[in-house]
Amino acid sequence: MGRMPKDMRQLMQQAQKMQAEMERAQQELADKTYEGTAGGGVVKAIVRGSGRLEEVVFDPSILDPDDPELVGDLVVAAVNQAMETMADDANSAMGGLTGGLDLGGLLG
Fold it and tell me: What residues does 37 pair with on adjacent strands?
């Protein structure tokens, strides 16, 4: 098999370092929380960077027995907004580590 060329060893070390940095960044993102609101703030959703929905808070005045779908629609909108914020943050963090390279599934 022989020895690996020096530049190949350096490339492997850089890839291992990048993978460790990405794992650290993923853990930091998983620990963060993101908030989304809907209906002018009457519904608020909190999600973790891991994608887990942590909390939904709503103003009781929004509960209308004649329009129960409204609350559901507002909850969906708030959760989606929080998830979009989380995804944008993750893309920024990961894009910064890879220098904008599309590495596909090589490191994950």
Answer: 44
CA 77 to chain centroid, in Å, comes to: 17
Domain containing residue 78:
31-93
Taking the CA of residue 6 as centre, how many other CA atoms within 13 Å lie in the half-sphere pointing to its CB? 0
Judge whether 108 lies within some domain: no
Q: The domain that contains 54 carries what CATH number?
A: 3.30.1310.10
Do 107 and 19 touch, CB atoms closer than 8 A?
yes
Locus of tokens 């908030």: 35
pLDDT tens sequence across 28-37: 888 899 999 9
pTM, 2 dp:
0.70
